[in-house]
């Protein structure tokens, strides 16, 4: 990775919770099911065994990915942001386009992004364009639908 994997404390806790649930609960239960299915005889036509092995590979792959992401994570608490007059990691930003359509976006880590909920990844095109912007600044963003300009209307950080 060429840039740090910034993440909020809440996002890191979610990654950790998913890892713990898979490792401590789902994987051991699946291993028991596979052992039971293997004891039933012919494995070539045993659906429980075949599906269980496939699901176990998926879980192990996800555990590896989560482990790598957590090791590379740099937890940043937005409430501790020193410069609250500009848009940085964790900011909740209200922007308006040329038609005065307002959008509120929260800049979060790429692993916790959810565009439908207004949480955009730190490395998304609009987030990169907004970095360092102050209220009243106009930023141009190149999106798949073309270029758009957004004016920063408000910048809010969580209370700390």
TrEMBL record:
Domain Transcription elongation factor GreA/GreB C-terminal residue range list: 85-156
Superkingdom assignment: Bacteria
A biological process term (GO) from this entry: regulation of DNA-templated transcription elongation
One annotated GO molecular function: translation elongation factor activity
Keyword field: DNA-binding, Elongation factor, Protein biosynthesis, Transcription, Transcription regulation
InterPro entries tied to this protein: GreA/GreB_C_sf (IPR036953), Tscrpt_elong_fac_GreA/B (IPR028624), Tscrpt_elong_fac_GreA/B_C (IPR001437), Tscrpt_elong_fac_GreA/B_fam (IPR023459), Tscrpt_elong_fac_GreA/B_N (IPR022691), Tscrpt_elong_fac_GreA/B_N_sf (IPR036805), Tscrpt_elong_fac_GreB (IPR006358)
Start and end residues of each Transcription elongation factor GreA/GreB N-terminal domain: 5-75
Pfam families: GreA_GreB (PF01272), GreA_GreB_N (PF03449)
HAMAP family in the cross-refs: GreA_GreB, GreB
Similarity section: Belongs to the GreA/GreB family. GreB subfamily.
Function: Necessary for efficient RNA polymerase transcription elongation past template-encoded arresting sites. The arresting sites in DNA have the property of trapping a certain fraction of elongating RNA polymerases that pass through, resulting in locked ternary complexes. Cleavage of the nascent transcript by cleavage factors such as GreA or GreB allows the resumption of elongation from the new 3'terminus. GreB releases sequences of up to 9 nucleotides in length.
Record-given protein name: Transcription elongation factor GreB
Species whose genome carries this gene: Sphingomonas guangdongensis
Taxonomic lineage from the root: Bacteria, Pseudomonadati, Pseudomonadota, Alphaproteobacteria, Sphingomonadales
Originating gene: greB
